[in-house]
Amino acid sequence: MVKVKELPREEYIERGHAACGGCGATIAIRHALKALGDNTILTVPACCMSVIQGLYPRNGLSLPVLNTAFMTAAAAASGLAAGLKHLGKDKEITLMAWAGDGGTYDIGIQALSGAAERQTNFIYTCYNNAAYGNTGMQRSGATPYGSYSTTTPTGKRQHRKPMARIMAEHGIPYTGVISAAYPRLVYDTYKKAKDIVGTRFIEIHIPCPTGWRYETWKTVEMGKLAVESGAWIMWEMEGDEYRFLGRSKLIAEGKAKRKPLIDWIKPQGRFRFLRKDPEMMAEYERGIEREWEILKKLVGT
């Protein structure tokens, strides 16, 4: 893993951007762009990042950004990829779509699936804060079971869609699932993805104090608790090989114990109904254990 002193000093997210206090997405994109460097073009659909980067004519990112409609991140990237290939610049410029979970799991899945089937040469990032954060925290396909949202006021009754596994099954060369709470892993993941040709899908768990209802200074702590409790599993698929990453790898190998799930749930206001209902709590835990078992079989542990 890259050492802190080895991280590039260049910054591509500018001062004065419009993120909420404690926003995990700014941690993630800061280190992703450090790995990708100057020759990068982004396409961003309607999502928190389209506000964070600033309203026209200002821009909180010091790289070219194409803002697109909610469902079109991958479609716009497909067009840009074709243009770069026609100009002979597809090998020197990195193309990345940066979309929220609503624009990925739900509204944008059709365009994304099509781009992956065609093996479009780009990185697709889903920064997952588990709801439609830009429009008031409505539930998305990424919202965990039992979580409050404005459209599930007593707790969601469906489990989170396994989006990264769905993308891996497209036969793409790289899929990565990481957390903004581990910035060096974010950097290493994008550094690896940059050198791979074809569709690369990266999903980043993004703690969100505004939507998850916790104190703004606890963002990194909340992200780590998700991983340490096993509620969020970090892994990658490169070629046909699945691997656990970071703390999740230590947990899977029995070298680290998982923290109690309640340590992750209790600080978050969005889980206030879940923690009061033993049946809902048991169902939430069942869904987490099912995901662990599936991934262990894929990894071969």
Task: Kindly list the characteristics that best describe this protein.
single chain, 301 residues, alpha/beta, Rossmann fold, 8-stranded mixed sheet, 12 helices
Largest sheet: 8 strands, mixed
Percentage of β-strand residues = 5-15%
Strand order of the largest sheet: 2-1-3-4-6-5-7-8
Please provide the count of β strands.
8
The SS-based structural class is alpha/beta
Low-confidence stretches are none
Q: Judging from the principal axes of the Cα atoms, what is the shape?
A: globular
Give me the number of helical elements.
12
* SSE order: HEHEHEHHEHEHEHHEEHHH
Q: Whole-Å distance between the termini?
A: 22 Å
State the fourth-level CATH superfamily. Thiamin diphosphate (ThDP)-binding fold, Pyr/PP domains
Determine the oligomeric state from the structure: single chain
Helix content: 25-40%
Rg over C-alpha atoms, rounded to the nearest angstrom:
18 Å
In the CATH scheme, the class would be Alpha Beta
* CATH topology type: Rossmann fold
